[in-house]
Amino acid sequence: MKKPGAASLWAILAFAAAFAAYSPTLRLGFVWDDHRMIEENARIRSWSADNIRSWFRGDPFGQGLNYYRPLQTFSNAVDFSIWRLNPAGYHLTNLLFHSGGAAVSALALSAAGFPAAAAGGAALLLACHPVVVEQLIVVAGRAEVMAYFFTVLTVWLLARPGPVSFAGALMSFILAMLSKETGVIAPLLALLLFYHRGTLRRDWKKTIPLLLLIPLYLALRGRALGGMPLTELGAVEMLLRAAARLPADIFHYLAAAVAPLDLHSHRARPEPAAWLAAVFGLALAGGLFTLALRGGRTALFLAGWYLVNLAPKVPLLLGNDLMLDHWAYGANLALFLWFASWLAGTSKPRVRNAALAGAALLLAAVGWLNVSRRGDDLKIYEHALPRTFSAPLRYNLAREYFLRGDFARAERLLEEILQRDPSNEMYLNGLALARMNTGRAAEAAAILAGAAAEGGYAPETLLNLSLALEKAGDAPAAEAAARRLALEFSNYPAGWKRLADMRMRSDDGREARASLEKALALDPYDAETLGKLGALEAGDKNYARAEELWRRALKLDPGNVSLKKNLERLESLRR
Prior knowledge:
With 575 residues, this protein is an all-alpha fold. It is 72% helix and 0% strand. The protein contains 30 helices and no strands. The longest helix has 25 residues, at 87-111. It is globular, with a radius of gyration of 27 Å.
C-alpha cells in the first residue's frame, strides 16, 4: 500500500486539530437564527415536492431576504431526518465542514507548489483560528464553512489531472455556489493556483466551463429571489465608498487575524477619522503598488488569495454599517500561509513544528474561551451588547429576557430600538408581547391592530393579536382574529393550532380536531399538535389513534412528562 504523502499527513492533522479545537460546540443548543431556520422551519421536516421546491425558490428563512442558500436548507433537512431536533447532530455537520475545509486547504496549497510544511501549517492555523467561532456556535452559520469547503475542494480538484477530478470540480463548484454566493470565486482562486505553480498557460482553460456556469447560477438566484440585486449601490457610489471604507476595513481584519481577542456578533464598522482613513488608504495603495512592481510569484499569490476571498464581502461592507468577523475566514489563509512559509524558510523543522503547534494551541485556547463566553442565546447577545449598536441583536436579547420572564427588561430594550425603527413589525410584536405579560393586554392589542392595519403584515401579528385580545377579555374578537389568520395564511401551522385552541375553549371538538389535522398536515413533526390531537382522540375514546399520536410526539419530545403520563393512563385502561 502506498504511504500517504506529507501533504496528506498535514491534511489529516489539520482536520483533527479543527475537530478537537471546536468539539465543545457539540454540547451547545440551538442559538440565534437557528430557532427560525431549524426549530420553527416546517420546510425541512419532510421531503415533499413542495418543500424541495421551496428550498430553490427563496431564502433559507422564507422571509424574502437577499440570501440564496438552497444547499444549506437541504443539509438542514438531512440533519432533521437523522437527528430530529437534537442540536448536537447539526453542530457536528458544521464542524465537519470546517474540519474538511482546513484539510483540503492543505492539499490545495500543496498543489499550488508550496512546501508541504508551509501548506499544512497554514491549514493548521486556519483550523484553530477563532474567527470561525460564530459559524460553529450558530448552526445557521453553516453556509460560510460549507461554501468554503466546496470552494477550496473545487480548486484542489481542478489542480489534479484526469477527467474524474475535473468532473468532481464541476460538481463541487455547483455545490459551492448553492451553499453561498461566495462560491463564485472558485475559478479565480484556481487561476491563482495555476499561476503560482507555473501552469497557467496550460491549465487556464479548465476554468472556462466553471465561468460559464456563473451566469446560469445568477439567473437562477435572481429568479428565486425576485430579481433582487447583490447590492443596491450604484457603480459610482460603490467606488467612493470603497475608497473611504475598504482600507480601514482591511486593516481591521488583518489586526483581528493576528490578535483575535475581541470577536463578537454584529460588529459595528469602525469609523476612523478622515486623516486616519487617508493613512490607511495610502498604506494599502503603496503596498499593492509595491507588490505589482517588485512582488514575486508568492507575494502576488498571497495578495490575490486574500483579496479574491474578501471580494464577495465588499458589497456588504459598503452597503451597511456592520462588518462580521467571519467575513475574513477564507481570506485569512493567505496570512497563515505567509507566516508558515516564513517559518519553513527560516527555521529548522523541529523549531518550525514547535512554533506552529504553539500558535495553533494558543488560537484554539482563545477559541475555547470564546465558545464558553458565547455558547447560548443570552451569552452571545450580552457579550456583544456593549460593543455594537445592532438593533437585531438587541431584539434577540429582548426575546431572551422575555423567555426568561424578565418582561420589564425586554420592554425597555424594545422601546429603545423602536425609537430608531418605529414601524418595524417584528419589534412591534415583541413590544406587544412584553406589555401583554405585564398586565397591559389592551395596549398590546392596540399595537398589533395598528400593525395589522398597515398591510403586508406577517402571520405572527395576527396570531399575537388573537392572544392579546383573549387576554384583554374580548374572546369573540380573539376568535375572529384567529379565523382571519387561518383564512389569510392557510399554510401557517400555528394559525390552525390557534384556531383549534379557541374552538376547544368553546367545546367545539369537531372543528378543533379539523384545525389540528390541518396543522399536522402542514407540519407532521410538531409534538404539541400531536399531543393535542391525541387528547381529543382519547376524549372520544379513540384510544388506538390517541396512542399512535402520543407515541409519535414522544419520539420528538422524549422528555415530555405529560405525554408519558397520558400513555401510562392508556395502559391502565387496558388492564
